[in-house]
Amino acid sequence: MRLSRYFLPTLKETPAEAQIVSHRLMLRAAMVRQHAAGIYTWLPLGFAVLKRIEQIVREEQNRAGAQEMLMPTIQSAELWRESGRYDDYGKEMLRVTDRHARDMLYGPTAEEVITDVFRTSIRSYKDLPKVLYHIQWKFRDEVRPRFGVMRGREFLMKDAYSFDLDTATARHSYNQMFVAYLRTFARMGLKAIPLRAETGPIGGDLSHEFIVLADTGESEVHCHRALLEKAIPEGVDYDGDLQPLVDEWTGLYAAADEMHDVTKAATLGDDLVTARGIEVGHIFHFGTKYSAPMGATVTGPDGEPVTVAMGSYGVGVSRLVGAIIEASHDDHGIIWPESVAPFHVGLINLKVGDAATEAACAALYESLGPDRVLYDDRDERAGAKFADMDLIGLPWQVIVGPKGLGKGVVELKNRATGAREEISAESALARLA
Ligand code: ATP
Ligand code: MG
Ligand code: MG
Ligand code: MG
């Protein structure tokens, strides 16, 4: 993409309303614009990152055996009356009335919709287990939308739902998601720690929040230091027994604030980490909470009806954009991990109009592939170009000017380390391949 054509209205000034660094940088780097409180328009740069994050989530869900589908944003209130949540949900639910005076709502989550699909489609235990997911916009009328996309009112969530015959197999579905989440966040360059979370009336130990440590996070974290250094599982067999792996992770103390056990934590001594964090995912087994009132049953092996056991598994896709920036930035701007970067390389032309520089840039642009490169071909001061490129945080920069070309070199800069090298254009290409 040529920057002269790209829609990238970066801001020089730091917007006064933004309280945390990710919000400031997302506005300055022209990733989003606020439309109304907690509601954002995603501009091309922000949208590109959002799509890359979404794709990682999708790949890891699919790998774990979940199947993608798409449920509506606007839901019928009827189903929520059946589950009993229509009144309970309160003011966080955006309620809408259609022209026939029917009560509708903008979905804050989708347990009711998926349970309804399930009960009308699956009849036999032979069709279990099933894990279904979608990546869809949600709306929650948060009391205090803030921190940009981190606590929006409209936000993009991946939500998966599992259906099993009994608690034992439901635990396997839960474990599949647990491991998929470890891998998902690690692929985005994040350290996300699974914390024991509240299970509500059903009890048990099957609820974990995945939290990324950050001083600006809204959650309290208490965990064993060793969790911060644990290696992420590779080459997982999702059909095999995942319990030992999950036990390895959950055996170390880690609790969300509501689950924090001060006495137990005290025994950790210096190994106890107490910090702030951002909730980027939440997995939850809730048994028959929805399947019972909504009548989601299958015929069991003995011919008797069985109410299915369910779980739900959320990832805050749009929140992750902010969380990654909180975890990866410096005074000059964002530092994208390669896996989610909107472009791989920023190509900077230091002298627009100079024939040799234009030719070298054009050749690099073609060879690197226009989809992977943002080519700053604007007639601007070098300083302004450097500042913009650092701000938007592409992993690599290739800086091309007449002086370097005179010596047969271009400059290759790594955004994360700041390391610069003068090398030939061919070597730069080889390095960026
Ligand atoms: P929070 O504690 O931050 O309010 P939650 O516990 O209400 O989140 P869940 O119902 O567990 O959220 O939803 C799954 C995921 O959706 C969360 O882990 C989070 O990453 C994301 N999420 C929830 N609310 C928001 C929001 N208002 N804006 C952006 N992402 C959100
Ligand atoms: Mg909430
Ligand atoms: Mg929460
Ligand atoms: Mg939660």
Automatic annotation (TrEMBL):
GO terms for cellular component: cytosol. InterPro entries: aa-tRNA-synt_IIb, aa-tRNA-synth_II, aa-tRNA-synth_II/BPL/LPL, Anticodon-bd, Anticodon-bd_dom_sf, Pro-tRNA-ligase_IIa, Pro-tRNA-synth_IIa_bac-type, Pro-tRNA_synthetase. Its EC number is 6.1.1.15. Keywords: Aminoacyl-tRNA synthetase, ATP-binding, Cytoplasm, Ligase, Nucleotide-binding, Protein biosynthesis. It catalyses: tRNA(Pro) + L-proline + ATP = L-prolyl-tRNA(Pro) + AMP + diphosphate. One of its GO terms (biological process) is prolyl-tRNA aminoacylation. It is found in: Cytoplasm. Residues 38-337 form the Aminoacyl-transfer RNA synthetases class-II family profile domain. It comes from the Bacteria. PROSITE patterns: AA_TRNA_LIGASE_II (PS50862). GO terms for molecular function: ATP binding; proline-tRNA ligase activity. It is an enzyme of class 6 (ligase). Pfam families: HGTP_anticodon, tRNA-synt_2b. Catalyzes the attachment of proline to tRNA(Pro) in a two-step reaction: proline is first activated by ATP to form Pro-AMP and then transferred to the acceptor end of tRNA(Pro). Homodimer. Belongs to the class-II aminoacyl-tRNA synthetase family. ProS type 2 subfamily. This is Proline--tRNA ligase. It comes from Rhodospira trueperi. The gene is proS.
